[in-house]
Amino acid sequence: MNRKTRNLIAVVMALGLGVFAVSQAAAQTVRSVRGVEVGAAEPAPGDFRLLPDGPPIPRDYVQQPPMVPHKTDGYEVSLNFNKCMDCHSWSRHREEGATKVSLTHFRDRDGGELSNISPRRYFCLQCHVPMTDARPLVENRFQPATGLR
């Protein structure tokens, strides 16, 4: 191997190590929204508690899924059973005193009406979450939609 080739290899290796060192240093300074370093262990969840069963919290924007005004611990929502439908189905909501499932949950992707809940709307707790007293992770100036005030 001639001298030019060795020098070129040395320069390429030095640049590679330099880029690696700079990227490592930059990665160590990146912080998450919660203020911890990205490589740090996941912090414990914040201090929050489920709110007692009661009336729903008002919605803040149009099309916001309503929050669940009761505990859902132990609710089974699987391919074979959906505990939410024990109370919120169209056939039982009156006797249970619960809100019935919206018509939008009976439409497919193309807007066609279905005789049962759409598979993409079947897993309720993907969108509907129990109400808590959790505080925002970061400060913000969010205001509810004017049409909902």
Keywords summarizing the entry:
elongated; mainly alpha; 2 domains; Flavocytochrome C3, Chain A, domain 2
SSE order and pairing:
Layout: H1 3-29, H2 85-88, H3 93-96
Cα-to-Cα separation, first versus last residue: 77 Å
Task: Give the second-level CATH assignment, the architecture of the largest domain.
Answer: Orthogonal Bundle
Low-confidence stretches: none
The fraction of residues in strands falls at: under 5%
Overall shape: it is elongated
Instruction: Specify the number of helices.
Output: 3
Largest sheet: none
Taking all residues together, what is the mean pLDDT?
81
The SSE order reads: HHH
Identify the CATH homologous superfamily of the largest domain.
Answer: Flavocytochrome C3, Chain A
**Structural class designation:** mainly alpha
Q: What proportion of the residues is helical, as a percent range?
A: 10-25%
> Over the alpha carbons, how many angstroms does the gyration radius reach?
26 Å
Count up the domains: 2
Question: In terms of quaternary structure, what is this?
Answer: single chain
CATH-derived topology of the largest domain: Flavocytochrome C3, Chain A, domain 2
Please count the beta strands (DSSP E, at least 2 residues each): 0
What is the CATH level 1 assignment of the largest domain?
A: Mainly Alpha
